[in-house]
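User: Good morning. I'm curious how UFG would be positioned relative to this chain. Could you predict the structure with it bound?
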Amino acid sequence: MAVLVTGGAGYIGSHTCVELLNAGVDVVIVDNFYNCKKSSIERIKALVTKDFKWYECDIRDREGMDAIFKKENIDSVIHFAGLKAVGESVEKPLEYFDNNVNGTLVLLDVMRNNGCKKIVFSSSATVYGMDNVSPLTEDMKVGGVTNPYGRTKFMIEEIMRDLYVSDNEWSICLLRYFNPIGAHKSGTMGEDPNGIPNNLMPYITQVAIGKREFLNVWGDDYDTHDGSGVRDYIHVVDLALGHVKAVEKVSGTTGLYIYNLGTGKGYSVLDVVKAFEKASGAKVPYKIGPRRAGDIATCYSDPSKALNELGWKAERDIEEMCEDSWRWQSQNPNGYPD
Ligand code: NAD
Ligand code: UFG
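Assistant: Good morning! Here's the predicted structure, ligand included:
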């Protein structure tokens, strides 16, 4: 029995596949390679002893997905595939709703038609919106999201809730990620954004390697210890290990479960710059800019539910996150090869 991993060649998916395979789990990857290179498949292969299947297929391709389910012995799904750039989603809302929401509807329907009712979904802390006060707990009210990307995550959570109500043979796990950074220890896998990075860590590593002149710190007048925004950064390998636990959970039960995957600690933008400079020995010049639209001052998790119910806890600290991000960037200045 295998786990089908949609978006398994992407940043979080590839790290998760390595941890699943090294835990002895059979894996089938489906990716349309829209936001990753095929060489990431080779990089996964080099880090694991177990072989795996992979397919180039869009999750919206109903016939293609059905054929994969008919061919492979799929027991459960980890669903990473989706578009994730907040700014781009404001420019292209229809593309985001089509890819993320419609893609998920097709996936769920094909799963149901093939008798597979176990799914782990990549949600986001963004569903907590602007009004909840950190530390964020899973029982807080969700919604009030400020951009189409975030709304796709909120809508998919709602769809999955309704699906479970309609048929409680489903086993659904919604994982709300905080801010994944870091890379595999080997330095061979990491985050490889297209164009100008939106997120903090890839921007910092590109400044450190000389691709960009300086970091813009978006705001220094928030109500935080140094005025810059505070987030809960989590090492991508810890996040990957959370998925190994979550897939075990959905395999052994039915129900709808929601977990935060974060460390429970908040670091400001300037804290991350300092930690990165210390870990890498590189300089990260920065300039203070205006606040970025849609940002909040502080966002961090209460991760205790995942500890109590999944037995999972993030183990890697901010220094290790910075060291590993830097190893990946410095060994692969241009990301994955074509
Ligand atoms: P990523 O872009 O590296 O990975 C997503 C993968 O899905 C890519 O390889 C892409 O080619 C593939 N994909 C996209 N649309 C597809 C489709 N229609 N059919 C098949 N494959 C498709 O992103 P990531 O950072 O690894 O994120 C994985 C998931 O986690 C996404 O759903 C994202 O929204 C969610 N998430 C990410 C973050 C973050 O900060 N990275 C935070 C919260 C949630
Ligand atoms: N920041 C800068 N300069 C930059 C980039 C970011 O100062 O060049 C700051 C932001 O203002 C924020 C912090 O760094 O205070 C983190 O910003 P990111 O863009 O890295 O991450 P966000 O917290 O804004 O959002 C991320 C993902 C979303 C996801 C959210 C919650 O991008 O997809 O975490 O999981 F929804």
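Residues 6-7, 9-13, 31-36, 58-60, 80-84, 99, 103, 122, 124, 177, 179-180 surround nicotinamide-adenine-dinucleotide (ligand 1) (CB under 6 Å). The two ends are 32 Å apart (CA to CA).
Let me know if you'd like a different ligand tried.
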